[in-house]
Amino acid sequence: MPGHIFGRSTRAKLPFAVGGEGCYLIDAQGRRYLDGSGGAAVSCLGHSDEKVCAALHAQLDRLAFAHTGFFTTEAAEALADRLVEEAPEGIERVYLVSGGSEAVEAALKLARQYFLEIGQPARHRVIARRQSYHGNTLGALAAGGNEWRRAQFSPLLIETSHISPCYEYRGREEGESVEAYGRRVAGELEAEINRLGPETVMAFIAEPVVGATAGAVPAVPGYLKRIREICDRHGVLLILDEVMCGMGRTGHLYACLEDGVSPDMITIAKGLGAGYQPIGALLCSGAIFDAIDRGSGFFQHGHTYMGHSMAAAAANAVLSRILDDGLLPRVRAQGQKLDAALRSRLGQHPHVGDIRGRGLFRGVELVENRETKAPFDPARRLHARIKTAAMEVGLICYPMGGTIDGRRGDHVLLAPPFIISDDEIGELVDKLAIAIDRALVA
Ligand code: PLP
């Protein structure tokens, strides 16, 4: 019996990817797919970036790996410097890992250890939001609010509580101002902290722009500032999960810069390695680092491949492309064009309820009824049909069934490479519109 690998679906027959060129992936039959979602918001530089490839070759010629228990490396130190240089105020230290879930696990453990070191051992509770995804390892899964992902593993998960997301399309009531809506949903955090007992609450974790579970849903202006104030009032740490929305995806290196908020910790991954290497990072405030440094001097955590030289070299080259080659303003400009093209092609579509997002991070929500916003019957699996139809027309996009009012609804997440051209934006939107219509009649 040959030892075939298996993925999330044990039955799916997938095409073999054999090459990549700019914004396109190429399969073994020579078919080209426009990568409209960078896989899962990963490939922010496309698939054949010369500078990143050259940096990887150069690093491999020097050193592939040195264990962080024994050595640090120029590549890892340079990466930490650059990430902190660009980070929101107060963020001073970097803990390198290999992906998003690892970054979130590290954040939860660092929060717990911080409170032990400063003499507040009762703090252990985590509050997060429904309709959020923070990873698939057990701590990160416990933090995430997606019931479908959590359900069968619930006996294994640490206790967390979930408040409402900031989801204007479905959450804001008629006549309610955007500001009042933001205040109302942020207020749920304060109520939950008080319900649990502030002295027991360790951290609140949220994605500034919600990705996989909701389809590029940004918080309304002022919401995150309010959340920051509430955390400060109760001594609760604010962890912003930018694994998907960070690293320039929204047009700013850290999405929270646009909200004017400095968290205590930030998690990043995906775009940091841009798919050239697996890498993630946890960034934390100087205050958290200092408490541990002055206390035990040892963060009780670690993974074999943390700070891997090849991954750090790739990330340095990716950051240099994003920051030194003018890609942030480009993301903002191309993002506006993508938004305009989506609105023009799909804005009046009878089954498109909402088009939203920031930068090159956009979401299209499908509804059965535009007036009532009623989602499609989940049994129809519209999102899965859109994915298949899109691949048939040569488009990679990231459709998902989110959780809407306790039911699963459908959206398509778009996160194309930052180098996407105007023509490619046109192609993306054309192919997406075709795929949606084919999926609706399938
Ligand atoms: N956090 C967020 C916001 C994510 O979107 C993801 C992945 O989609 C993760 C964490 C987990 O990252 P990884 O799949 O690299 O473990």
UniProtKB/TrEMBL annotation:
Pfam families referenced in this protein's UniProt entry, alphabetically: Aminotran_3
Transmembrane segments: none
Known cofactor(s): pyridoxal 5'-phosphate
GO cellular component: cytosol
Keyword annotations of the record: Aminotransferase, Pyridoxal phosphate, Transferase
Superkingdom of this protein's organism: Bacteria
One GO MF term: transaminase activity
Protein's name in the database: Adenosylmethionine-8-amino-7-oxononanoate aminotransferase
Gene source species: Albidovulum inexpectatum
